[in-house]
TrEMBL record:
Pfam family, one: PH_FAN
Keyword field: Repeat, WD repeat
PROSITE patterns: BEACH (PS50197), PH_BEACH (PS51783), WD_REPEATS_2 (PS50082), WD_REPEATS_REGION (PS50294)
Ranges of residues in domain BEACH: 283-576
Official protein name in the record: BEACH domain-containing protein
Cross-referenced PANTHER family: BEIGE/BEACH-RELATED, PROTEIN FAN
Domain BEACH-type PH positions: 183-278
Taxonomic lineage: Eukaryota, Amoebozoa, Evosea, Eumycetozoa, Dictyostelia
WD repeat start-end pairs: 637-678, 721-760, 812-842
InterPro entries documented for this protein: BEACH_dom, BEACH_dom_sf, BEACH_Domain, FAN-like_PH, PH-BEACH_dom, PH-like_dom_sf, WD40/YVTN_repeat-like_dom_sf, WD40_repeat_dom_sf
Source species of the chain: Dictyostelium purpureum (Slime mold)
């Protein structure tokens, strides 16, 4: 990712030439040229000398002074300084006996005052630049310098070959210091060579993977840490990537929203590491049926256009770590001159059915004329330039990341007349110029919650970017009138436009062009969407090219002219079926939280996710059940005549409360091993109940449309109310708020009252009556902080209600069948849902699907501590890990091997206050209750 240099030193890989390698650095003293040696001594500068493959750098400790670069091609001599011009060396130097010189005709100065200004190229008449080394023998350093100095006299191909050989030799000498392992009990799994890839930079090193961590050790000390380590548990995604059109890249995403891009020597090596991490070592990788699930969610308005485009970029191999494959976003707005931007007018928008190059019919005819002039024996193309290249990315980002532009432009900014200056001017260029068909980048659409939103439009670093021919100084970007000279408002308006109904209904056309079936081949020709053949995946096999000159030429073309994303869809992309705004409270960033395609920002350690957050902090800890695998069936009690619809264990683990479809409430004492209360409440079934915190009152829902309050102390009904016009199917109590669901399709929110004697009653009128569902409500739950209610209907729809504003905030069609159970995880960040057809889905609080799976049989109930999920089905019990997304299968577990004649209809897990161990209750279809501990 783009990142600021967080080291105390100013030197970075971006100061080197393309293809250059950084080898060693040494503490040194520089003696500026002077006619007087004593003066040179007095003006000496402490710092460090850095040995690279194309040049030597000297970085002063004083940041006010420039870093000096000595290209080998400008050096005419290097060696011990004997002061042949005078009789004897000065005593202060002779005593050191370690002075050496670099005779150079050019010195490049950079980073004065730690500012990213254009480099200064100073010419000299081959004068001597003298240095002394502080802690190393002169011979060691001079030998390395002279080696590269001799290489510099070779042609580029031979020079690069010799340098690569030295890199390989250096890598082979790197051995991991096992004393640096985080845990000395770690077991080494694999060790191999690779390179760390970042924008415009590559750093070779070694990769070590143990049973618990991943380590990267660069062959130099450019990194902040000599040995960088990552917990395997923190890895949430591992994706194969291309690098220079070769399948040799691997990108790892971590739970702190950072990422690591590694390049390997060959595809089989990359695949070996990928399979090792994904299949064996990384337990927290998010597993999803990605393409189908995300497409469905986008169609139904669960995922914003912004997030869906980010997801498609990720799926197509786009990454912020490689500028040739930077994420691509569309131009949306076509009006950059009005004072007011009207998003209700179609003419406000760009035509998303056409590529940028085809928006202007006159220009398109020029492209087509050239296309037909290309000989038939050569690959034809319409556009000789691409819509996404490193130069285009930095064209937009030069103000925020000038060091990258200086690296790309060999120490210079681009000509002021070609620089990004005005939004309208750039739009006019992509409409009319035959050399400009660039699309946009994600930074133009970042949600307001991201900290650096719009920063790339401002010259906040006060860079001297030059003066244009029209005498205008290049400074902040000139924004359209409707932005009121406010960069954040401009980005916010673009984001609003991206999420507009017009774009939502037409975005699939642009997806067809960039990621889909119109990307290449005959369909691309029909759609006027054909680019130069080398930009496409599979267009050339780099590894098969033996000629080093031809191979180098192709790699340069690929790196300079960009790459077309990997093709994802080979058939037309479906249109969005819902208006996005109907089902969105705000714009979320599911990808940033669940799938690792995170905040592409200027700090790889930050998390700028822009997710939906409801009022109230969620701080509920996990219940910490521990392992349930070895629970044993302790006893089985026959209490009811019909299905046990709900049951709870008292806080002291001595009493079981249960209700059944037989219409009875039962209270059973485990201590006395007998039934202590039984109440035949009504002639119809009891569907659910909630126990008050003090366990003195039980609120019961019944199929007779009523809600009852039962006093445990008095052994009688203390209060009742007609809750619905049909059966009460589910209840959930949180503090003084009771939520009920019914077969009449409604969800009602009630306030409970507590009298001075402790008696609980329910207000006669609900504070909210939601009738959003078309079918029966079957399940319900409230978030741990009491701000969100989620209900599930018999037609598979989830409804999210804000209990503070008492409004429907989202409708999510999750299943094709009845939603039998809903359960918030204890931290409130996720919701576990299931359907009668055996499907279980874990979704984020914003509605994003994290993963899903299917079990055999009908699902009737479930419970979870946030880490472990236990499910009751018509075929018995099953356990799933919410950490790995995998089923827990242990053939030795007596708990999992337990079988039942009847299906499990209800269950409850609690941690005993006596033993601090989990206790499981299951309600069986035949009316019995099983106790596991």
């Amino acid at each position: 990712m783009f990142s600021k240099n967080i080291n105390k030193v100013r030197f970075s890989l971006l100061l080197m030439d393309e293809g250059e390698y950084y080898f060693d650095d040494y503490s040194a003293v520089y003696y500026p040229p002077s006619n007087c040696e004593e003066d040179s001594w007095q003006r000496r500068i402490n710092g460090r000398i850095l040995i690279c493959s194309n040049s030597i750098f000297f970085e002063p400790d004083d940041i006010k002074l420039s870093i000096m670069k000595f290209p080998y091609r400008e050096i005419s001599g290097v060696g011990p300084w004997l002061n042949s011009q005078s009789s004897t060396p000065p005593s202060f130097l002779a005593s050191k006996n370690s002075v050496f010189y670099i005779k150079s005709s050019q010195v490049v100065e950079m980073k004065e005052n730690d500012k990213n200004h254009p480099y200064i190229f100073k010419q000299y008449n081959n004068i001597d630049f003298k240095f002394t080394l502080s802690y190393v023998k002169q011979e060691i350093v001079l030998e390395l310098i002279k080696t590269f100095y001799e290489y510099s006299k070779k042609d580029k191909i031979e020079h690069d070959s010799l340098t690569k050989k030295m890199v390989e030799e250096r890598e082979n000498k790197i051995y991991f210091d096992v004393t640096q392992l985080v845990d000395m009990n770690e077991r080494n799994i694999i060790e191999l060579k690779c390179s760390k890839i970042s924008p415009l930079a590559e750093n070779p090193g070694s990769l070590l993977i143990t049973n618990s961590r991943l380590y990267f050790q660069p062959m130099n000390n450019i990194e902040e840490h000599k040995l960088k380590n990552y917990s395997l548990e923190s890895i949430i995604r591992v994706l194969k990537r291309r690098h220079s059109l070769r399948e040799i890249g691997l990108e790892l995403f971590f739970d702190d929203s950072s990422s690591l891009f590694l390049k390997f020597s060959h595809t089989p090596v990359r695949d070996q590491v990928h399979d090792l991490l994904v299949q064996h070592l990384c337990t927290n990788i998010v597993h999803t049926n990605e393409q189908a699930n995300y497409l469905l969610k986008w169609q139904n308005g669960i995922i914003s256009n912004y997030d869906y485009i980010l997801y498609l970029n990720n799926l197509a191999g786009r990454t912020y770590n490689d500028l040739t494959q930077y994420p691509v976003f569309p131009w949306i707005i076509a009006d950059y001159h009005s004072s007011y931007l009207d998003l209700t007018k179609p003419e406000t928008f760009r035509d998303l059915t056409k590529p940028i190059g085809a928006l202007n019919p006159n220009r398109l005819s020029t492209f087509k004329e050239r296309y037909h002039q290309i000989p038939d024996d050569q690959p034809k193309f319409l556009y000789g330039t691409h819509y996404s290249t490193p130069a285009y990315v930095l064209y937009f980002l030069v103000r925020q990341f000038p060091e990258y532009m200086l690296r790309l432009q060999n120490g210079r900014f681009d000509s002021p007349n070609r620089m990004f200056h005005s939004i309208e001017e750039t739009w006019n260029s992509v409409l009319n110029s035959t050399t400009d068909v660039k699309e946009l980048i994600p930074e133009f659409y970042k949600p307001e919650s991201i900290e650096d939103n719009g920063l790339f439009l401002l010259n906040s670093q006060n860079l001297d970017l030059g003066v244009r021919q029209d005498h205008n100084v290049i400074n902040d970007i000139v924004l359209p009138p409707w932005a009121n000279n406010n960069s954040k408002k401009f980005i916010s308006k673009l984001h609003e436009a991206l999420e507009s109904e017009y774009v939502s209904q037409n975005l699939h056309h642009w997806i067809d062009l960039i990621f889909g079936y119109k990307q290449k081949g005959e369909e691309a020709v029909k759609a006027d969407n054909l680019f130069y053949h080398l930009t496409y995946e599979g267009s050339v096999d780099i590894d098969s090219i033996i000629d080093p000159v031809q191979r180098a030429s192709l790699e340069i073309q690929i790196n300079e002219f960009g790459q077309t994303p990997k093709q994802i869809f080979t058939t037309p992309h479906p249109q969005q079926t819902l208006n996005l705004n109907d089902n969105f409270i705000n714009n979320n960033s599911e990808l940033q939280n669940s799938n690792g395609f995170d905040g592409f920002n200027n700090n790889s350690n930050s998390n700028n996710s822009d997710e939906i957050r409801f009022s109230g902090d969620i701080k509920n800890p996990l219940n910490n059940w521990g392992s349930l695998n070895y629970l044993k069936l302790n006893q089985n009690i026959k209490l009811h005549k019909d299905k046990v619809s709900a049951l709870y264990l008292s806080n002291n683990s001595e009493v079981i409360y249960s209700v059944s479809l037989d219409g009875c409430l039962k209270i059973y004492s485990l201590k006395e091993k007998r039934q202590v209360r039984s109440l035949n409440l009504c002639n119809l079934a009891l569907s659910s109940f909630q126990l008050s915190k003090d366990e003195k009152y039980i609120i019961i829902g019944s199929w007779d449309n009523n809600i009852y309050v039962y006093s445990v102390g008095n052994g009688s009904i203390s209060y009742s109310i007609t809750g619905h016009s049909d059966a009460v199917s589910c209840l959930k109590l949180h503090n003084n708020i009771l939520v009920s669901g019914s077969w009449d399709s409604s969800v009602k929110v009630w306030k409970t009252q507590k009298a001075s004697n402790g008696a609980i009653s329910i207000n006669k009128e609900p504070i909210a009556d939601f009738v959003d569902s078309d079918t029966e409500i079957r399940s319900i739950d409230i978030s741990p902080n009491g701000t969100i209610c989620c209900s599930g209907s018999s037609d598979g729809v989830l409804y999210f209600y804000d209990l503070l504003s008492l409004q429907l905030v989202r409708r999510l069609h999750l299943y094709d069948d009845e939603v039998t159970c809903i359960k918030f995880t204890p931290d409130g960040s996720r919701i576990i849902t299931c359907s009668i057809d055996g499907t279980v889905k874990l979704i984020g609080i914003e509605g994003s699907e994290i993963f899903s799976f299917k079990v055999s049989g009908e699902i009737h109930c479930l419970d979870s501590d946030g880490s472990t999920l236990i499910i009751g089905t018509s075929n018995g019990l099953c356990l799933w890990s919410l950490t790995t997304g995998t089923e827990t299968k242990d053939s030795a577990s007596p708990f999992l091997s337990q079988t039942y004649n009847d299906s499990i209809y209800s269950l409850n897990v609690s941690v005993s206050t006596l033993t601090n161990k989990p206790v499981l209750l299951t309600g069986i279809e035949n009316g019995s209750i099983s106790i596991f501990n």
